[in-house]
Amino acid sequence: MDSITSAASVLAAGLAVGLGAIGPGIGQGTAAGGAVEGIARQPEAEGKIRGTLLLSLAFMEALTIYGLVVALVLLFANPFAG
Amino acid sequence: MPLLLPFAELEVGKHLYWQLGNLKIHGQVFLSSWVVIGALLALVVVGTRKLERDPQGTQNLLEFLWDYIRDLSREQIGEKAYRDWMPFIGTLFLFIFVSNWGGALVPWKLIHLPSGELGAPTADINTTIALALLVSLAYFYAGLSRKGLRYFEYYVEPTPIMLPFKIVEDFTKPLSLSFRLFGNILADELVVAVLAFLVPLIVPLPAMFLGLFTSAIQALIFATLAAYYIGEAVHEEHH
């Protein structure tokens, strides 16, 4: 792999994870805040809220994971390595 | 470009290749999934050998799992069709769950392979894509067998404008299912490996517990989504 390709790949891998973490981070914060509010208002619904929260957090986390998969492909299975 | 970390010795992109005709297959994935399948079979055989009216021990565990999977599939697929699909959903859930936890809890390092390393079968993209394509086939089969060609009405409901989106959805469903599972499991392994590389003692432990937690959630999510897709396909629209 020539040096420009590898430099661009490493940079892109970092950006893929870093930028991909912003959106889900905000989303998870909003979701967790909503869940805490819900529990404060209705403490008896805690179990149900927790289950739904965890499930939706995992969905949001998947978005970052897509970025991670792209980063891993760039680092370990680079199609442009030549 | 395989990554080699001295302490953690994580090997990404290195495989134990078996030649099968023209195909090169990843042997370590087969070995660890056979172990997983064997463990599940052993559990079920032991648990159902002497059935008792008051379940104890393994039978109790199996009945709890059965209840759990039934509730999951009944909630997503609906009262009418869930019985047909419960075995499928249950198999997916148990296989993925035991794979994920087996990959993290079994000390695979003690078994030395000539190349590559044993680990969770779900940390290999081929396994997760195969599972996701099975889900795709399953929901097409579910829809077609229950509704016949009327199944395709679903593509133009509520308006025909939805047609391209619904077609794209058929491709993105297996893509997101497989990438989500693969990425999460591999990410857990990588995080633990990198932490173990930096500080070999104690520090990786919280990351390991987090890994166990997320991998259990991922198994639940995969099974829930599979059931949801099947439920969407068999759902009768009331006009």
UniProtKB/TrEMBL annotation, chain A:
Domain of life of the source: Bacteria
PROSITE patterns with a match to the protein in the record: ATPASE_C
Chain segments annotated as transmembrane: 53-77
Principal location: membrane
Subcellular location: Cellular thylakoid membrane; Membrane
InterPro entries found in the cross-reference section: ATP_synth_csu_bac/chlpt (IPR005953), ATP_synth_F0_csu (IPR000454), ATP_synth_F0_csu_DDCD_BS (IPR020537), ATP_synth_F0_csu_sf (IPR038662), ATPase_proteolipid_c-like_dom (IPR002379), F/V-ATP_Csub_sf (IPR035921)
Keywords: ATP synthesis, CF(0), Hydrogen ion transport, Ion transport, Lipid-binding, Membrane, Thylakoid, Transmembrane, Transmembrane helix, Transport
SUPFAM superfamilies listed in its UniProt record: F1F0 ATP synthase subunit C
Site residues, Reversibly protonated during proton transport: 61
UniProt keyword DNA repair, yes or no: no
Bilayer topology term: Multi-pass membrane protein
Cellular component per GO, a single term: proton-transporting ATP synthase complex
Ranges of residues in domain V-ATPase proteolipid subunit C-like: 11-74
Function comment: F(1)F(0) ATP synthase produces ATP from ADP in the presence of a proton or sodium gradient. F-type ATPases consist of two structural domains, F(1) containing the extramembraneous catalytic core and F(0) containing the membrane proton channel, linked together by a central stalk and a peripheral stalk. During catalysis, ATP synthesis in the catalytic domain of F(1) is coupled via a rotary mechanism of the central stalk subunits to proton translocation. Key component of the F(0) channel; it plays a direct role in translocation across the membrane. A homomeric c-ring of between 10-14 subunits forms the central stalk rotor element with the F(1) delta and epsilon subunits.
HAMAP family in the record: ATP_synth_c_bact
Homology family: Belongs to the ATPase C chain family.
Protein's name according to its UniProt entry: ATP synthase subunit c
Automatic annotation (TrEMBL), chain B:
Subcellular compartments: Cell membrane; Cellular thylakoid membrane; Membrane
One cellular component (GO) term of this entry: proton-transporting ATP synthase complex
One MF term in the entry's GO annotations: proton-transporting ATP synthase activity, rotational mechanism
Regions that span the bilayer: 25-46, 85-105, 125-144, 181-203, 209-230
Membrane topology, as annotated: Multi-pass membrane protein
Keywords: ATP synthesis, CF(0), Hydrogen ion transport, Ion transport, Membrane, Thylakoid, Transmembrane, Transmembrane helix, Transport
Record keyword Electron transport present: no
Function: Key component of the proton channel; it plays a direct role in the translocation of protons across the membrane.
PANTHER family referenced in this protein's UniProt entry, alphabetically: ATP SYNTHASE SUBUNIT A, CHLOROPLASTIC (PTHR42823)
Protein name as annotated: ATP synthase subunit a
Species annotation: Cyanobium usitatum str. Tous
Record gene name: atpB
